[in-house]
Each structure stands twice: as structure tokens, then as C-alpha cells.
From TrEMBL:
GO molecular function, one term: dipeptide transmembrane transporter activity
Entry superkingdom: Bacteria
Protein name (database record): ABC transporter permease
Topology relative to the membrane: Multi-pass membrane protein
Transmembrane segments: 12-33, 107-128, 140-165, 205-225, 263-283, 317-335
Organism annotation: Marinobacter vinifirmus
Classification lineage: Bacteria, Pseudomonadati, Pseudomonadota, Gammaproteobacteria, Pseudomonadales
Protein family according to the UniProt entry: Belongs to the binding-protein-dependent transport system permease family. OppBC subfamily.
A Pfam family per the record: BPD_transp_1_N
Keyword terms, alphabetized: Cell membrane, Membrane, Transmembrane, Transmembrane helix, Transport
Listed GO CC annotations: plasma membrane
Amino acid sequence: MPIILDKLRKVALRLLQALPTVFGILVVCFLLTRALPGDPAAYFAGQMADAESIEEVRRTLGLDKPLPMQFVTYVGDLIQGDLGMAISTGQPVMSELASRLPASLELTLGALLLSFLIAVPLGVLAATRPNTWVDHTCRFLVTAGVSLPTFFTGLALMYVFYYLLGWAPAPMGRLDMMYLPPEQVTGFLTIDAIIAGEWEVLGAALAQLALPLITLALFTLAPIARMTRAAMLQTLGSDFVRTARAAGLSGRRVLVTYALRNALLPVVTTLGMVFSFVLGANVLVEKVFAWPGIGSFAVEALVVSDYAAVQGFVLSMALLFVTLNLLIDVIYTLIDPRVGEEA
């Protein structure tokens, strides 16, 4: 029981330490959105509106107040769970983010899982077999993944598998128009289809998910495989691995129990960094494949200088980063208990 309470205390302390970061991001985002070109009041009033109508809309939106008062009003609404109204859609920002976030997370987490399952074994094989065809393949994939932008990879995959071969469905969102989405439980179409037992819908959702998921997975595979290979090479050359081999332990036990477990620490850190990169790359992939996620929503909000929508997007991303960093801390303590004891 004392151990559990100590862990909970550390988690609560970590959350408190993250609050200044979130507040700082909120302040910077608030100031930057006010520097965007364009007038949201003029956009909301319409093209035929006169100066008086635009000024009335500006007063209604609170844009005529000084910046400090606008910020205080925004924080007060935020505490009440009100992120404002999205000018681009006319809907509350909270409902827009809640409806689009599962689509982005399904794509992002699926790509991370696929790249992790491929990159870690590939990096381990490359480290245990240096200068072989496996090592050269790993280096090639790493170079290609880093060099090729996601929009180019997505367009190339679409051209080959949809246009030339006809294997992939039309890149028109999360689900083909011939199928009705299952009852929403989690917001993830694949999981909701499994819960509802609608296997045809599951197949259609996976078919739509395949190309954008592979596009992101190729992008995220490169840094994970490179870090796994480098960490394994360093660990395999360490003294404790040589001692374990000299003690007569089997090669598999030395590789898995001693080398891989210690090499996973920097890999987990890289995974957290890659997650933040993927959210940025998600925007391009969502536009290429018409994926209705928060990335495309943020781009549309930037075009029309939609302050509330942009601020809500950045705030949601900041909360995701904080949650992910907290999760990485917990995983660290599971992989290496010394991390938790030193903290």
C-alpha cells in the first residue's frame, strides 16, 4: 500500500509540474493567433456586410476588448469547459474536437504500433548482424523514411495501389459511402465495428485506414529503427553483456533479458518524440486522404483566422503531449525500477 501511494504521489506531482507548461503554451498560442492575417469578424459577417455590421460582430465576439481582457475571458470560459464557437463550421469547438480527435488518434496510434512492431525487431536484427543484408535493409528504410515527405509517400502509395492496381478503395475518408458506421462507443471505427460485430464494416474501415496508416508508419519507422539499432549496438558492447556471456548464459537470454531491456529505455524516449512529430505530419496525410481528423480542422481554422478553433487545437495537442510524457514516465518505471527509485 505505501508503494502504491508513493507512485500516486509522484504521478500527481508530475501533473502539477506540467501545468505551467500548458499555461505557457496557452499564452503563446493566444498571442500568435491574434497575429494571424485576416479579420474573423469580417469573415463571420459575410462578404456583403458593411463596416457597422462588422464592428457589431467584433463586439459580439469580444474582439474589441484589450488583449488582457480577451485572455482572461478565454481562460474563464476554458475553466467552464467552453472553448468557444468555430467560425469555420458554426459548431462548438469542443464538439468538433471530440468528434474529430478519435479519427486522428486511430490513425496516429495505429501507425505508431505498426512501426514499433516492425522497427524494433528490425533494429535488433541489424545490431546483431552488422554489415549484412539485414543491416543494409534497415539503413535503407531509415534513409528513405527520413528523406521522403509524408505527402509524397501518400501520393505515391495512392497512385500505385489505388490508381494503377485498384487494390485500395478511393481515399475519401474513414469509411466507404456504401457502409453505415457502427454505433459509436469509443470513436475508433475499427474498435466500434468489433464491439458491434459488424465484420464487413471492419474490413471496409481497415481498407480505408491501410494507405494513410502505412504512410505514417514509414515516416515513424525510421527514427525508431535507427535508435533501436544504435542502442542495441551500444548495449551489446557493454561490460555486463560480456559478463553474462562469459557466465555461460544462452544467447537468447542475454539478448532479451539483458541487452534488449536496457536498450528499450532510449527507444521509449524516441517513441514519445516521434508521437509529437506524427501529429504534425498527420495534417498532410489527412489532407491527402481526406481524413476527417483534427489536423484538417486546424488547417481550415487557420485559413479563416478562427481563433477559438486554433486555440482549442493547440490546447488539445498540449494535453496529449503531457499525457504521453506521463505515460512514458510510468513505462520507464516498469522497464527499469531504478528510474522510479531515483525519482
